[in-house]
Write a structure and sequence with these properties.
Layout: E1 3-4, E2 17-22, H1 27-42, H2 48-65, E3 70-79, E4 82-89, E5 115-117, E6 124-126
Antiparallel strand pairs: 1-2, 2-3, 3-4, 5-6
Helix pairs in contact: 1-2
């Protein structure tokens, strides 16, 4: 589930946009939509494709690497010639290295390869473990 906040008015400058969403792959579409709306409001429609691509990539990285169940999407325009994009994990750091335990992402069967979260936070068991790559990948890419 996502929670969209209204544009945040500022004393001067452009409104900023934020969205808190579940850490799932489907959030990438919400990220692209948020960016598209912000750019339309700001009159920057010519840059939509590039900004949507960046937001998709940032969201995919956060979905894969973040630790908490939620991520926050941010689209701001701090100056006329600058757009600020961010996707953050709001989980506070813990542990000796400053890393929070990772909340396992739900997995699905894909190409007859299945993986399921193990009882240990962040660990995944897979029917075809890759030699290297992300923990939820099936086989070498």
């Amino acid at each position: 589930m996502t929670a969209l906040t209204a544009a945040r008015p500022r004393a001067k400058g452009y409104p900023g946009y934020r969205l808190t969403a579940d850490r799932v792959p489907e959030t990438a579409e919400a990220a692209r939509s948020l960016a598209r709306v912000a750019l339309a409001v700001w009159g920057l429609a010519d840059d939509t494709d590039t900004v949507e691509l960046v937001m998709s990539e940032l969201t995919a990285n956060a979905v894969h690497h973040a630790h908490g169940p939620k991520i926050r999407l941010v689209v701001n325009r701090p100056a006329a010639a600058r757009v600020y994009l961010a996707v953050t994990d709001r989980t506070p750091p813990t542990g000796s290295l400053g890393w929070a335990p990772r909340t396992p992402m739900p997995t699905t069967d894909a190409d007859s390869c299945s993986s399921t979260p193990s009882p240990t936070a962040g660990a995944t068991t897979s029917s075809a473990p890759p030699a290297s790559g992300p923990p939820n990948a099936c086989g070498p890419s």
